[in-house]
Design a protein that fits this description.
CATH superfamily: Electron Transport, Fmn-binding Protein, Chain A
Number of strands: 9
Largest sheet: 9 strands, antiparallel
Strand content: 35-45%
Amino acid sequence: MRREEILKLMRENPVFFLATVEGDQPRVRGMLLYKADGNGVIFHTGVMKDLYNQVVKNPKVELCFNGNDTQVRVSGELEIVDDNNIKDEISEHPTRKFLKSWKESGELKDFYKTFVVFRLKNGIASTWNMQNNFVPKELIQL
C-alpha cells in the first residue's frame, strides 16, 4: 500500500488500538482517531488518564488500524499539541459532541489544561493481510 492509501484506510476506520508502555508492561487500549493526513495522526485524551502519564514518560507508541481485511501498524513518537484552536476544533466536531458538553458544563474544570491532543508525525507504517502473510514487511513513511 502507498502512503495515501494507508491514510485513507485509517480515516475510514477511525477506531484503532494504541500500545504504550508502563514500566516494563505493555498497555493497549482502543482509541478514536480525529484526523490522519500529511500533518500526522491526531487523537486525544485527558490528563487524568493512565495513557497521558505513560506517554509523558515514554512517547514511543504503536497504533493498529484494521479495515478492508488489512491491518496497518504505525510506530513513532507522540507529541503533545498545546493549541487551544485545535482543541476547540475537535470539541466542535460532530463526532465529538460529548467533549462539547464537558467543555460547556464545566465538568472538566479547566478544559484547555485537562484535554490533551496528541500527534504522531513521521510515523512508520507496515501493512499485513492474508495475501502478503509471508512476504517481508515493507516500511512506509507517513
